[in-house]
Amino acid sequence: MTDTASAADAPGKRGSSARWLALAVIALAQLMVVLDATIVTIALPFAQRDLEISQGNTQWVMTAYTLIFGGLLLLGGRMADYLGRRNIFIAGLIGFAAASALAGLAQNGAQLFVGRGLQGAFAALLAPAALSLVSVTFTEAKERATAFSIFAGISAAGAAIGLLAGGALTEYASWRWTLLVNAPIAIIALIGALTFVLKDVPAPRTGGYDVPGAVSVTFGLVAIVYGFSRAAEDGWTAGSTLGLLAVGVVLLAVFVGVERRSTNPLLPLRIPGEINRGGALIVALLVPIAMFAMFLFLSFYFQNTLGYTPLKAGVAFLPFPIGIAISAGITSTLLPKLGPRPLMLAGAVLGTIGLLWLAQLGFGDGYAFSVLPAQSLIALGMGPLFVGMQAVALHQVDEQDSGVASALLNAAQQVGGAVGTALLTTISVQVAKDYVIDNPTVSDLAARASIHSYDVAFYVGAGFFLAAIPVIALMIRDKPENLIEGAEDDVKVPMAV
């Protein structure tokens, strides 16, 4: 039967425990989506050898996922609004499990690339549906802050957990299990979704799906993400890089024009236009660039410089999710009292200090004194940044727009991650080459050049954390009472029970 109560009322009919069980299911799905961006990183050399993938094509194992994921996010978010968030969540789980099995059982490179692309497509359904389900399920201020802290902690820590899981699975099972492991996880989440996640009534739709908007933004985001991916290999001034970025910018400009005139827009411009949400989206672009500086180059440092095994390299990242869990929990307690701005500012400052600390790495330094303290500072900073960012990006969003608002936040993070990977890889490669040319007689030249290039990348990453500080200070203006009002008046979603 159907109940037209608000999201706050409907879950309550099944008790508070039902909401937290639903959150556990949603969080499990989110973890699967996030860690899948990194879980295959350590397994890449093994997959490349087994499937005889050329060096030039290896990047497609990563790029196929991020390209399709980033490009389809807004469309996936709008589908969640119009077809039901739970329905799209379940469809995403089924599709992700099948795509993971296809990729894990691939017999050649092409099958692996197709499987990874399909994973990205179904992740574009899962991610916005998951975040909007959290938003509509938890409307009481303290519960909402706690739910967002759990979800944000998983979002921020998922990449590190992916490296840990990828290292363990590669070392003790097979590279294939870095992909196949998603199938049983998705099935467990599917059973949980059918049992604990409440049905929602889709938002009323007065027009079509805004096909021109969907096409322009999808291909625009794909061009932007792929352009940054090409920059890492071809260089920033290459015709392929500049052409893709130009096409992407033009298509996104076309998308804005289409949305201004559409009676049923894919992305109502009032969503990014509100100053707090706009600030949260800018932070969502900047923070992944800085975070990827740590993940990408510490992974190289652990394995190439310190000689860690894949599993040991994964374990070396373990303080990161632990630190995020601690800081996200603290943030959930303080957010309703202090509001997001001071907490996010503190997070950005901690992240800046942590990356500046990492940038002091030198030849012969070890993990305990040079990496662990810096990694811990960054982790403690990521908790308040992600919790605050997600809370601000989704508060006081009309119920019919919660899916696309969630998708916009995810898209900003995906583009930021692509920018970070391409920008920092390009810089580090050039810096290492210059170091070798300038210091031809130095002992252990290759190792010293690598560490120097990592240090420069850490400095650049710290700059992006630093750039987030004025954005937070000037644009994140929500006070605690605003978030409480947002929690109570935010998303009124008819639920079916």
Automatic annotation (TrEMBL):
<feature type="transmembrane region" description="Helical">
    <location>
        <begin position="59"/>
        <end position="76"/>
    </location>
</feature>
<feature type="transmembrane region" description="Helical">
    <location>
        <begin position="118"/>
        <end position="138"/>
    </location>
</feature>
<keyword id="KW-1003">Cell membrane</keyword>
<feature type="transmembrane region" description="Helical">
    <location>
        <begin position="235"/>
        <end position="258"/>
    </location>
</feature>
<protein>
    <submittedName>
        <fullName>MFS transporter</fullName>
    </submittedName>
</protein>
<feature type="transmembrane region" description="Helical">
    <location>
        <begin position="145"/>
        <end position="169"/>
    </location>
</feature>
<keyword id="KW-1133">Transmembrane helix</keyword>
<feature type="transmembrane region" description="Helical">
    <location>
        <begin position="314"/>
        <end position="335"/>
    </location>
</feature>
<dbReference type="InterPro" id="IPR011701">
    <property type="entry name" value="MFS"/>
</dbReference>
<dbReference type="InterPro" id="IPR005829">
    <property type="entry name" value="Sugar_transporter_CS"/>
</dbReference>
<keyword id="KW-0812">Transmembrane</keyword>
<feature type="transmembrane region" description="Helical">
    <location>
        <begin position="209"/>
        <end position="229"/>
    </location>
</feature>
<feature type="transmembrane region" description="Helical">
    <location>
        <begin position="342"/>
        <end position="361"/>
    </location>
</feature>
<dbReference type="InterPro" id="IPR020846">
    <property type="entry name" value="MFS_dom"/>
</dbReference>
<feature type="domain" description="Major facilitator superfamily (MFS) profile">
    <location>
        <begin position="22"/>
        <end position="480"/>
    </location>
</feature>
<feature type="transmembrane region" description="Helical">
    <location>
        <begin position="279"/>
        <end position="302"/>
    </location>
</feature>
<dbReference type="InterPro" id="IPR036259">
    <property type="entry name" value="MFS_trans_sf"/>
</dbReference>
<feature type="transmembrane region" description="Helical">
    <location>
        <begin position="175"/>
        <end position="197"/>
    </location>
</feature>
<keyword id="KW-0813">Transport</keyword>
<keyword id="KW-0472">Membrane</keyword>
<feature type="transmembrane region" description="Helical">
    <location>
        <begin position="20"/>
        <end position="47"/>
    </location>
</feature>
<feature type="transmembrane region" description="Helical">
    <location>
        <begin position="367"/>
        <end position="387"/>
    </location>
</feature>
<dbReference type="Pfam" id="PF07690">
    <property type="entry name" value="MFS_1"/>
</dbReference>
<feature type="transmembrane region" description="Helical">
    <location>
        <begin position="456"/>
        <end position="476"/>
    </location>
</feature>
<feature type="transmembrane region" description="Helical">
    <location>
        <begin position="88"/>
        <end position="106"/>
    </location>
</feature>
